[in-house]
Amino acid sequence: MTEEISDPKILVNRREFINLTWLASLGFIFVDVGGVIYFFSMPRFKDGEFGGTFTVGKTSDLPSVGSAPTSYPKGKFWLANTDEGVKAIYKVCTHLGCLYNWSDQESKFICPCHGSQFQNDGSYIQGPAPRDLDSFIIQAVDPDSGEIIAESPATGAPLRLPEGQDVIIKVDTGTKITGNPHN
Amino acid sequence: MFKTLNFTDIRNKLKQAFDARVRIVTAGLSLQELRALLRGDPPTEKPNPRYKVHVTSFLFHIRPKFYKKASTLFTHTWRLGFFTVFFFALELITGLVLMIYYTPSPADAYNSILNLMSNVPFGKLLRDLHRLGAEGMVIFTVLHMLRTFLTGSYKKERSFTWLTGVVLLLVVLVLSFSGYLLTWDQLAYWAVTIGTSMAEAAPLFGNQVNLLLRGAPDIGAGGLLRFYLLHIVLLPLVAILMISIHYYKVAREHGISMPAKFDEEDLSVDVKKEANRRIDFLPDLLAHEMFLTSVGIFVLVVMTAFFYSAPLEHIANPQQTPLDTQAPWYFWWLQGMLKMGDKTLMGIILPTIIFGLLFAVPYIDRNPHRQAYKRPAAVAVGLLATFTIVVLSYMGLPQYGIETPAATRIIQDLAPEEGLGELRSIPFEELQPGIYQVNGDMPDELCPDLLWGCHTLEAVFAEFSERVHQAEQAGKLPDVEAVLVIEEWQADLMKVTPRIIWTDSQSGVRKTYEKHIFLHRDHNRSE
Predict the structure, then answer these.
(1) What is the pLDDT of residues B330-386, one digit of tens each?
(2) Which of A4, A168, B421, B459 has the fewest Cβ atoms surrounding its Cβ within 10 A?
(3) Which CATH superfamily is domain B67-317+327-395 in?
(4) C-beta atoms of B41 and A29 within 8 A
(5) Distance from CA of B306 to the nearest CA of A (A)
(6) 0.80 cut: is pTM over it?
(7) Which chain B residues are Cβ-neighbours of A29 within 8 angstroms?
(8) From the list A3, A16, A41, which residue is nearest B100 (CB)?
(9) ipTM score assigned to the predicted complex
(10) Which residues have CB under 8 Å from B458's CB, separation 6+?
C-alpha cells in the first residue's frame, strides 16, 4: 500500500486492474467449484430404478390394442396400448397424489381418494383433478444397434410404434410429461 | 413540474443512498474506500475505516487488524498455522459434500464408497481430496507444533494458546482415526479394532470406554454409527471451538510472535522500526491469504489428479485379519510401542504421560529466552523427542518385530493380501505360460517369442529368485525349491502360482507354501 493517493485522473491504475482481474478469476473458480458440487450432488438413476429407464420388453410382448393396461409397480406407471399407440401413464393421480386403480368393469382409471376418473389413455373424464394424467417418455429402441428410433412427443400423445419392426420398448421415468389441463 | 426536477440533486441523493447501503453491508467501508483498497491507496477517511471493520463486523472480529512485519516473515512461521486451518476448512467442505452419498451401516458403507468412486461425477476427486486433506492436516498440525516449539512461541502469556494447540492435536488425531473406519474395508476395520482394544486396556474404566466407543463388545453397526457421529458432529464442534479460542488469542490478543531476535537482541532503531511496521489486514493480509488458499487448492488438485489415489482394500471381514495390518502412519509410533510390552503400560500410561508432558511444556520450561542458541536444553529435548518418535514409528512397521515365516514373507511381498503388489502389476501379455524355476537353468530372456520381451515378468522373477537365495543363505529355507507357474486358466484369465518348498529345520518335514493368483486381461493394474 502506498502512502500517496494515486492520480485521480487515471480511471483504472495498474494495481486496480490487476486486482480486478484476480478477483474475476477467483469468481470463475467459485463458479467452477459450484459446478463441481452441483454435478456431484445431482442424483443419477440406474436402469430399473425409479427415476431411471425401465425396459418393458419388445413390441411382440405388448398386450393387444384396447386391452387393460399393464401395471409396473417399481416404475410406478401403467403401460396402456391404445388405438393411437403406447403410453406410459404415471400412477400418481394429478389431484393430490394418491395412486389410482384400473377398473376392469368400467374400463377406466378411478382414484379411490376423491373419485377422479380417467380414460385408458389418461385423459380426464370427471372429478376434482385439474388435468389429464401425467405420462413418461417412451423410447422405441432398435434391438441390434441400440439407437432410439422413435420417442414419445412432448405433447403427451401416445407413441405410434414403427410397423413391422420388433423394437425394444423403454420407459424413461426421469422425464415426465405433464398432462393437459381440462377446461 | 419538470423545471423543478433537479437531476443533479437526484443523482447525488441516489449516490448517497447507494453508498449508505454499501456501508451497511461492508460494516463501514464506502464504495470509495473499496476502490482505494483495490488501487493501493491509503484510507479515504479518518478514523481509518479499515480498522473499524474489525470492531463492528462479526466476520472480521476474529481477524487481526494488522500483523507486525517481522512476524510475517515466511521463514519464521512457514505459514504452517494458516495451512492447518486451510486443511480443516477443506475437510469440512469436502466432508459435507461426501455425506450426500455415504451410508454409515456395515451393509452399505463399502458399497457407498464404491458408488462414489465409479458412479458419481467428481466422486473420486472429492474422496481423494478429503483423504489427502486429512493426511495434510495431521502433517501440518505436527509441523506447526514443532515450529512453535523451536521458536519458543509458547512462553509467558502464550502458554494457554499452546495448551489449546495440544488439545487440537489430539482432536485432529482422533478426527483422522474416526474417519479411517468409515470406509469399512479391511484396513479400517482392523486398525480401529486395535485402537479400541487399547482403550479397553485402560485401568478402572477401560471396559466402559470400549463399550461406549463400539456400542458392543466388538465393532459392528453400533461402532460404525458412533464413530461416524464422532467424526461429523462432536469432534468438528470441539475443533471449531478450540480453533476459535486458539486463533483469537493469536490474532487479536497477542499477535503472531516476533522472531526472537527482534524481541531479545539489541538492534538498531531503524531495524526495529521496520520490524514493527504494520501490515494491515485490509488489503494486504487478506490478499495474501487468498493467494495462499489458491496455491493450496491448486497443489492439492494437481496431486489428486496425477499422483494420489485414496486407497481402498477389500471389504471388512471380521473373521480374518490380513497379514501386515498397520495403523495409520501417525500411529506407527504407538504400534511400535505396543510391540514392546504390556498394552496398559505401552498403550495407555505412556501415551498419557507423553501428552501430559506436551501440555506441560510451557510450565516445565523455565528459561525466559526464546532464541534457539540461548535454550540449548529445550532444542535438544525437542530434537530428541522427534527422533524418538521417528524410531518408534519405524518399529511400528510390520517388517519389524513380527516373525513371519520366510516363505510367507517372500510371497506376501510379491503378491500382498491387500493392495496390488508387483506380481499383479505384470501386463497381461507378458504372462507367458510356463514353469519358471529358481535355481534352474533359466535363460535371461524368458519370452523370446514376444516382440518386446517380458521385462516386467523378468524383473519380478529376478526379485523372487533373489529373495529365495537370500533366505536360503540365511538358513531360513534349507533345501529350497522355488517355482513360478503360469497357466492359461480360461479365456483371458491366467493363473499364476508362486510356490516355495523347503525342509523344516526342526521336524525335517518337507513343507510347501504357495498362493493362487488369477489375473484377467481387463484387471485394473493401477492402485
Answers:
(1) 999 998 898 888 888 888 889 999 999 999 999 998 888 998 889 999 999 999 999
(2) A4
(3) Cytochrome Bc1 Complex; Chain C (1.20.810.10)
(4) no
(5) 18
(6) yes
(7) 294, 297
(8) A41
(9) 0.81
(10) B444, B445, B446
